Amino acid sequence: MSNWLQQICEDCWYDENPDKSPIKVKNSVKGICCICGKITDGGIFIHVNPATVAYPTLEENDIL
């Protein structure tokens, strides 16, 4: 099953959304940024089709 909730690092968030501040989850777990592949625990998630990103989290338990 595909996971449409994907982690994104702060750098990629601001590259994609230069005029918006992200809403962050406190005490986030480590995961891989779906855009650049960098390990992140910044707590920023986006709702996106995993087939459209370079480094998708395919399953909910694929977090690091």
Description:
The chain is an alpha+beta fold and 64 residues long. The protein has one domain. Strands 1-4 form a two-stranded antiparallel sheet. A two-stranded antiparallel sheet has the order 2-3. A hairpin with a 6-residue loop joins strand 2 and strand 3.
Write the layout of secondary structure elements.
Elements: E1 5-7, H1 10-16, E2 31-32, E3 39-40, E4 45-47
Antiparallel strand pairs: 1-4, 2-3
In brief:
By secondary structure, the chain is of the alpha+beta class.
What are the secondary-structure elements, in order, as H or E? EHEEE
Query: Any low-confidence stretches, pLDDT <50, length ≥5?
Result: none
Summarize the biggest pleated sheet.
2 strands, antiparallel
Strand content bin? 15-25%
- The number of distinct helices, counting runs of at least 4 residues, comes to 1
Query: What's the overall geometry?
Result: globular
> Roughly what percent helix?
10-25%
Structural class: alpha+beta
Please provide the count of β strands. Answer: 4
Strand order of the largest sheet: 1-4
Give the overall average pLDDT: 90
Question: What keyword list fits this structure?
Answer:
two-stranded antiparallel sheet, alpha+beta, 4 strands, 64 residues, 11% helix, single chain
